[in-house]
Amino acid sequence: MKKTAVFLIGVTVLLSACSSAGESTQTAQTVEESTASQEESAEETESAKEEETDAAPTQEAAEEPTSEAPAESGEETVNGSVITDSGPTVLHVTTSFHYRSDSDETTYEPILTMDSVTMTIQDPGYETLNDSVNRYWDGVWDDMQSSYDELYQEAKSYHEEEYHSGYYTVSRDASIQRADDRIFSFLDQEEWYSGGAHGGSYQRGVNMDAATGQILTLKDVAKDYDQVYAAVTEELARIDAGEEDVGPLLFEDYKDTVSQMFYGGGDALEWTISREGVTVYFNEYVVASYAMGCIEVPLHFSEFQDLFQEKYLPDGGGLIRLCRWGYDDAADVTGDGVADALSVSAYVPEGESESECTVSVNDVEAVHTEYGSFDSAWVLYGENGRIWCYVQLFGDNDWPIIAVFELTGGTPVYVTDLSPMILREPGGSTENFVMSTRMEFLGSYSGWKDYRLGEDGLPEANTDFYTLYGYGTDNSVTVKTEIPATVSAQPDITDGTETTLAVGTVLHPVRTDGESWMVFRMDDGGYCRVQVEGEPFYGTINGINEFDCFEGLFYVG
């Protein structure tokens, strides 16, 4: 008899993703079936979208300023906090995970696990986009569940073999490439293990018009599709040539394969769009052997912007680009227009407890000792010509730390630490990007602010309040004694009505400055702001201790 666990796990960090190479012969059929199911789902989704077109919000409606990312210049005061000019729009995305597993009832060893991310666009005005994103990930999870029982029987047989190694896994995660008022683009990353020497992976590019939620093809964003094809094939030819005395690296018929993908009908191409450019992906076994992994062909706007429609080019702000672990020779970090040999790593030497965080440019190194393990790294190009590197690490209990280095001129220099802050999937520009932090205020929370890159390389807030993850849906408190509050129909409580909250009122945290006030959503759909004095655990509301005011306050640690 099997033991099954099924969960929907909410997470309080911005979307993260990891990718690994590999594929087993046993799983090839699963990938083909999954891809076919996805294509059928996409056709149904397109049909549904056509019916919804008349009801879809216009681009103008989608661009209405929000409190997190105001579109107009100058300053505005909300809840006593100053909102500054925040630059280009950036969308705010929260995530949760579906999870299902089966274990051996005797040994409790896992037999099969499945998980998939789900995503929510938090910004008002983008409901149609959010519906499209929900339909996509709901379809993914439904497809995974439809194959679960059959895969479990296969996994169980494998588990009962004397020399089995590991257990079956199927995972779908996502990495946001761009999230603004024009494009929402992410990489759907599937990884699996189903016995054999190694697992497998597959990457799907998903690109949606931010105003309508419509799935975009590469033809939709290209101005000159033929030249895009030519640029991709030219880069593949360079890869195929390999190094001297190595010989061709791609399959002999790869050119026919690529031509069919571009011109054979349907959209067989996997691609994403970021503020840096368009990237085309060729998964394992498509144009090369497993050993080559997934081949990525980037077309940077700095070189190829004339090949794409202007409406999809990024507007305003400097670039933020993900830097790979180890060597990444695609980044120009000296500002001379030529790619440099950039290396970022962090590892704990044997016998030590702290990581040696190392950033090098063209073999010139800067080393900083930090307590935590490497998560990701980002290069930020300031508009003043200075260039920075944010190295994200996590210590015990997932405590987040960002080590900041300056790279200007090609000589990396450690600057400072930012903690407890997280930068993972900004999707924006150096004028407006998202970072999250942990705070202790009427409980333990994680929330985000919009930031811009300051001249000193450190983030400067575009808003002075935090939006809490889940937008008030994941946590709640109940009023234990009558307390004063200001109520309004909107979370931006600039002109509200003073009232007294009755005992038993249920409140869902929405936003806070982390120091003196919190805005809650009430079950009737309205909002209220509560003023707090004092420190965490000892805060008071109208002179009454916070724990005597609320039932359900929860502090971590």
Give the helix level as a range of percent: 10-25%
Query: How many structural units, i.e. domains?
Result: 3
**How many helices does DSSP assign?**
9
What is the total tally of β strands? 34
How confident is the prediction overall: mean pLDDT?
Answer: 83
CATH architecture of the largest domain: 2-Layer Sandwich
What does the largest sheet look like?
12 strands, antiparallel
Description:
By secondary structure, this protein is of the alpha+beta class. It folds into three domains: 213 residues, Heat Shock Protein 90, CATH 3.30.565.40; 107 residues; 118 residues, no CATH class. The protein is built from nine helices and 34 strands. The strands form seven sheets. Strands 21, 22, 23, 24, 25, 26, 27, 28, 29, 30, 31 and 34 form a twelve-stranded antiparallel β-sheet that branches. Strands 1-4-5-6-7-8 form a six-stranded mixed β-sheet. The protein has a five-stranded antiparallel β-sheet with strand order 12-17-18-19-20, with no helix packed on it. Strand 17 and strand 18 form a beta hairpin. Helix 1 runs antiparallel to helix 3.
